[in-house]
Design goal:
It is an enzyme of class 2 (transferase). The chain has helices at about 10-15, 20-30, 40-50, 60-65, 80-90, 100-105, 120-130, and strands spanning about 1-10, 30-40, 70-75, 115. The chain is α+β, with helices and mostly antiparallel strands. The protein has one domain: Alpha-Beta Plaits, CATH 3.30.70. It has a four-stranded antiparallel sheet. The longest helix is centred in the N-terminal third of the chain and has 11 residues, at about 20-30. The protein is globular. The mean pLDDT is about 100. The structure holds adenosine-5'-triphosphate. Adenosine-5'-triphosphate binds next to strand 4. Adenosine-5'-triphosphate binds near residues 61 and 117.
Length: about 140
C-alpha cells in the first residue's frame, strides 16, 4: 500500500467541489488517512512548488495557491499515487484531462485545475512531510 498527497486547490474549495473530490476518492476504494482545511502561507507554497521556481507561471501559481483555503488529504491504497492521478486527469483540464476525470469534468484553465496529486513516491514522501509532518511518514 502507498500514500499520496491530495490537495483540493482554492478554486475547488471556492466552487464547493470538496465533497465531489472526496467522494470520488472514496468510491475508487482509496482511504483517507488525514484531512484538513488549511490556509497556505507563502513559505509552504514555495516549498510545495519548488520545482517550478523560475518558470513564467511561478509567481501567479504561488498567489493562486495562497489566495484561499485548500483541503489537504493524505490518501492511502494500492497504487494510490497513480490511482489519484487517474481520477484527477491531465494537468490541462481541456487539452489533457478526459471527461470523467475531476479536471475533465469541472475545469477549463490549466492554472485553475482544481486538484493536486503527488506524481511519484519521492514527491509523495517529500510533500506529505511538508503538509502532514505529524504523520511522521
Ligand atoms: P499538480 O502538481 O498541481 O498536481 P501537475 O503535476 O498536473 O499539477 P505541474 O506541471 O506539476 O502539473 O504544474 C503544477 C501546477 O502549476 C498545475 O497543476 C497548474 O495549477 C499550474 N500550472 C502548470 N502549468 C501552468 C501554466 N502553463 N500556466 C499556469 N499554471 C500552470
Amino acid at each position: 500500500s502507498e500514500r499520496t498527497l491530495v490537495l483540493v486547490k482554492p478554486d475547488g474549495v471556492e466552487r464547493g467541489l470538496v465533497g465531489e473530490v472526496i467522494s470520488r476518492i472514496e468510491r475508487k476504494g482509496l482511504k483517507l488517512v488525514a484531512l484538513e482545511l488549511k490556509n497556505v502561507d507563502r513559505q509552504l507554497a514555495e516549498q510545495h512548488y519548488a520545482e517550478h521556481d523560475g518558470k513564467p507561471f511561478f509567481e501567479s501559481l504561488i498567489e493562486f495557491i495562497t489566495g484561499g483555503p485548500v483541503v489537504a488529504a493524505c490518501v492511502e491504497g494500492p497504487k494510490a499515487i497513480a490511482a489519484f492521478r487517474q481520477l484527477a486527469g491531465g494537468t490541462d483540464p481541456v487539452e489533457k484531462a478526459a471527461p470523467g476525470s475531476i479536471r475533465g469534468d469541472f475545469g477549463l484553465e490549466v492554472q485553475y485545475n482544481l486538484v493536486h496529486g503527488s506524481d511519484s513516491p519521492e514527491s509523495a514522501a517529500r510533500e506529505l512531510k511538508l503538509w502532514f509532518p505529524e504523520l511522521g511518514a
